[in-house]
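Tip: read the tokens left to right.
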């Protein structure tokens, strides 16, 4: 696990700062789940913004994690709870308000489209460290490419293949890598 955390931290530092965060920075009303405690201790993203194909993805620091639940867990204007939001979900990142959700019951990461009328979240990553590594990797492909998009804003096929190859190294499975590239809209 330490090697996976170190690899993820290295990938994320291409997009922002990472450092071990004091667990006292968690301001939620319940104990921070162990997987999140380990992630913020070992990987430690500090409000990282990762360029994407379309909207960027943001991963908040531990200090801001509870505040980032506004609009999902409770109404950000009235502070009233949002009944439809499952209590075992914590938003750990978002892409243009589309949340990446940590399920406290399984430790898996779900993804949902905001504004769809219902939270039809589907599992996309086995854990938060894998999520951060994959999202950072897609951002690295964009940063490393001289010609990511053509004049019609289509992704260069070589960049798509580069993303699949890099994600396959992380996931150990090419079909999973292809599914993530598809979900990211890299067609």
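Filled-in amino acids:
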């Amino acid at each position: 696990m330490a090697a996976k955390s170190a690899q993820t931290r290295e990938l994320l530092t291409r997009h922002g700062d990472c450092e071990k965060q004091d667990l006292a920075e968690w301001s939620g009303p319940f104990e921070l789940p162990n997987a999140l405690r380990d992630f913020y201790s070992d990987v430690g993203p500090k409000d990282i913004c990762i360029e994407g194909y379309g909207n960027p993805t943001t991963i908040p620091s531990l200090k801001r994690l509870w505040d980032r639940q506004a609009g999902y867990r409770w109404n950000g204007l009235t502070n009233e709870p949002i009944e439809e939001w499952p209590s075992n979900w914590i938003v750990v990142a978002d892409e243009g308000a589309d949340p990446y959700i940590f399920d406290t019951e399984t430790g898996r990461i779900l993804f949902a489209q905001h504004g769809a009328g219902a939270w039809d979240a589907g599992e996309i990553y086995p854990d938060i460290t894998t999520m951060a590594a994959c999202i950072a990797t897609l951002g690295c492909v964009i940063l490393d490419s001289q010609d990511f998009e053509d004049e019609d804003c289509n992704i260069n096929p070589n960049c798509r293949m580069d993303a699949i190859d890099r994600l396959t190294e992380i996931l150990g499975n090419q079909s999973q890598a292809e599914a993530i590239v598809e979900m990211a809209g890299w067609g």
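The two ends are 31 Å apart (CA to CA). The chain has a mean pLDDT of 94.
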